[in-house]
Design goal:
The complex is a heterodimer. Chain A is α/β, with parallel strands linked by helices. Chain A has helices spanning 2-15, 37-56, 80-92, 105-117, 152-161, 175-190, 209-218, 229-241, 290-301, 307-326, 331-340; strands at residues 23-30, 60-62, 65-75, 98-100, 122-124, 140-142, 166-172, 194-201, 222-226, 248-252, 271-274, 342-345, 348-351, 368-375, 378-385. Chain A has a 6-stranded mixed β-sheet with strand order 2-3-1-4-5-6, with helices on both faces. By secondary structure, chain B is mostly helical. Chain B has helices at 2-32, 39-56, 65-84, 92-114, 137-159, 161-171, 173-178, 183-208, 216-230, 235-252, 260-275, 280-289; strands at 128-130, 133-135. In chain B, strands 1-2 form a two-stranded antiparallel sheet. The two termini of chain B are 35 Å apart. Classes of the chains: A alpha/beta, B mainly alpha. At the A-B interface, helix 2, strand 8, helix 7 and helix 8 of A face helix 1 and strand 2 of B.
Chain lengths: 399, 290
């Protein structure tokens, strides 16, 4: 009996994680499967790159101690219900000290309920809708530009070429896309454009034939909308197949991915609002330069980083910075440092709102507008707005 | 007006493919009273068939049709012997659970192999224009091939000995067995045919729209609506009902938000189930006899 107890005690001891001492556990869910997987996995890759860099350098030095970073991540299958269960598990069972957000506004809103309930800091690399930050949350920090500014660059640039654009808004019926279009609708009207079609579609739509016929019937010369990768890429392909006669097409999220060029001619001329591109020219106060990040990412993943990868990296970088500034991993002290942040990294400038009505909302980060252009028979993503970031003149009208 | 006409024509073109996909599900139901829930997965298998053959092996997209057809048939026959044969004659719930389980396994394997990324099969075919509206060549080709496959199926079922055996087993399995028809083999053949039709529908859909491992679910749902509308177990009815559903989509979408399309379709599904369980054919017969 005694020996059984001894074995049980050894077993129980062995089950306790060995990394409890100088390890920081960060929990997150990732959409490895489901419609959000392309962008979500990209975001995870960015975070993993940060973690590996930190650990290779011996960990994060805080208050004279070096802390290695450990991730606990689960597949949320792009479903809000899974996010709710898994963030609870990440906090209670896996003892995550800090959290990174899932990808997309809908999932972030769900995760935020849990993180706030348990008072855990959660850095958001992929959840642009602003409403989540109006609920009196204290520990959320949005590192990307909010949804209401996504299409402002496209509208500004388009006005230069077509001051009387006739716009068709066609967008996914999800919180992020609706938030983008709600703001863009007003911006378009202020710019002097007329809105000739305003139509949402279910996020799981696989055939846009009917919607595109509506776009053609409306007489629109400009298309603004989309949602996430699968629907955005399908829209681009069908707009091309059905020769919709548009002069300008801006699609959310999907065209930012390098995979978008597999659409061939259908990708040519499509513009995409982007949080970050490898061509930006920010001078970082700390962390890697734009070139260094791009090089590290290419070396690790044999692919060009998109903005989701960059935002995945920057959430880690900002958390690391806040811990180092606080000289502690105490959540209250780290949160206080995050509240103070007004800094520029390779990802651009970041500053969080600190007033109770918008706490955590991103105030300083700026977007760019990219366009797929055909150069010597190859599709290349060029930056076409703002002027400071421009790498090529915009192609207008669509080829 | 031109917009409505274009919408209706587009609806009919895509409706033909809905019909083709549904012919597979309804053939299996008609012959063996099995609701095949691997239908969506088999549509996706057809999509990946053309993607891999056209993309990796360089086979022209439409030349993959016979390969996908034969491949789908063989997979269907194998699935029949593995998962369906044992539950033939059992309560419908058994076959429902058996095919549902196989569907989960297939979708899981597909997700493990390809993730849920979006795949695109670039096919360039000249289209047809009507004013500002263009009907892509891929849509026209899909509808034309659907017509040919439907004719071939009709010829097989009504003009060949094997087809007659399938219909005999469908009509009365015991009696067919008594006159010497090997019913189990005929059932396997019918299941193979049903899966082959689903795979070819998937192959044609992949030439029109990008797809993921999970795309089959949407088409499976549409297939159920079409199957009920066309009368359970009636392949010709399924094709007509597919066209009718496409027509309905074409007629309604110019006037209502597209988000409502699915709502209307499923309301129709429930209404048909309650009021005319035999679908359109029953409705037509009632009219004739009235």
């Amino acid at each position: 009996m005694k020996s059984i107890r001894l074995v049980a005690a050894i077993g129980a001891f062995a089950a306790v994680p060995a990394f409890a001492a100088n390890t920081i556990t960060i929990g997150m869910t990732v959409s490895r499967t489901g419609p959000l997987n392309t962008d979500s996995v990209s975001q995870l890759r960015g975070s993993e790159l940060w973690r590996d860099e930190v650990n290779a350098a011996g960990g994060i030095k805080v208050g004279g101690k070096h802390y290695k970073v450990r991730f606990v991540e689960y597949d949320d299958q792009s479903q809000g219900g899974r996010v709710q269960q898994l963030y609870t598990r990440l906090i209670l069972q896996d003892k995550s000290q800090f959290l990174f957000s899932p990808y997309s506004s809908g999932l972030v809103a769900t995760a935020a309920v849990i993180s706030e309930q348990y008072g855990k800091i959660m850095l958001i690399g992929g959840g642009a809708e602003g409403k989540t930050y109006e609920l009196g949350n204290k520990y959320l920090f949005q590192c990307i530009t909010p949804a209401d500014q996504y299409l402002s660059g496209a509208i500004t640039e388009l006005k230069e070429h077509n001051p009387h654009a006739k716009v068709a808004f066609v967008y996914s019926d999800d919180p992020f896309s609706k938030a983008v279009v709600t703001a863009a609708r007003d911006q378009a009207k202020q710019a002097g454009f007329s809105v000739v079609l305003d139509e949402s579609y279910p996020p799981a739509t696989t055939d846009f034939t009917a919607v595109i016929n509506k776009v053609i019937s409306s007489g629109a010369d400009t298309f603004l909308g989309g949602g996430h990768y699968p629907d955005g890429a399908t829209l681009a392909r069908q707009l091309h197949d059905q020769k919709a006669g548009l002069k300008w097409v801006s699609i959310l999220v999907a065209p930012d991915s390098e995979k978008f060029k597999t659409l061939g001619d259908a990708a040519n001329g499509i513009t995409v609002p982007s949080q970050w591109e490898p061509q930006v020219k920010y001078k970082p106060a700390f962390g890697p330069t734009v070139e260094k990040f791009t090089e590290m990412y290419r070396k690790e993943f044999k692919d060009d980083p998109d903005y989701h990868a960059a935002s995945g990296y920057v959430v880690g970088l900002l958390l690391q910075h806040a811990m180092q500034q606080a000289g502690s991993i105490d959540p209250e002290k780290v949160a206080a440092e995050l509240n103070k942040i007004d800094t520029t990294t390779f990802f651009g400038r970041n500053k969080f709102a600190t007033d109770a009505g918008h706490h955590g909302l991103q105030l300083a980060h700026q977007m760019v507008l990219a366009q797929w252009q055909m150069k010597n028979g190859q599709l290349v993503k060029e930056m076409v707005w703002p002027d400071a970031a421009r790498t090529a003149a915009v192609v207008y009208p669509l080829p | 007006m031109l917009g409505l006409l274009a919408s209706v024509l587009d609806g009919l073109l895509i409706g033909a493919v809905y019909g083709l996909a549904s012919m597979g599900i309804t053939l299996i139901w008609g012959v063996m009273d099995v609701v095949n829930l691997t239908h969506g997965a088999m549509i996706v298998a057809g999509m990946f068939g053309v993607y891999l053959l056209a993309g990796a092996a360089g086979v022209p997209a439409y030349a993959t049709l016979p390969i996908v057809l034969v491949g789908g048939f063989l997979v269907g026959v194998a699935l029949y012997w593995i998962a369906v044969h044992r539950v033939i004659g059992q309560p419908p719930l058994m076959s429902l659970l058996a095919t549902f389980s196989v569907n989960l396994v297939l979708v899981g394997l597909g997700t493990a192999a390809w993730g849920t990324d979006l795949f695109n099969v670039p096919v360039s075919l000249p289209g047809f224009s009507l004013g500002r509206y263009t009907f892509p060549g891929t849509h026209l080709m899909a509808a034309a091939l659907t017509g040919m496959i439907a004719l071939a199926l009709y010829f097989f079922l009504y003009r060949t000995r094997l087809g007659k055996a399938v219909r005999a087993v469908s009509g009365n399995r015991e009696a067919a067995g008594l006159v010497g028809i090997p019913t189990s083999r005929v059932l396997a053949l019918a299941f193979g045919l049903g899966v082959a039709l689903a795979s070819v529908a998937g192959m044609l859909i992949a030439t029109m729209f990008p797809f993921t491992v999970l795309s089959g679910e949407a088409y499976q749902l549409k297939s159920f609506v079409v199957t009920v509308l066309g009368g359970l177990g009636n392949p010709t009815g399924a094709l007509v009902a597919g066209l009718a559903l496409g027509l309905l989509e074409g007629l309604t979408t110019p006037f209502i938000p597209v988000s409502w399309t699915l709502v209307i379709e499923f309301v129709l599904f429930v209404v048909v189930l309650i009021s005319v369980p035999g679908g359109l054919p029953t409705l037509l017969r009632r009219r004739r006899s009235a």
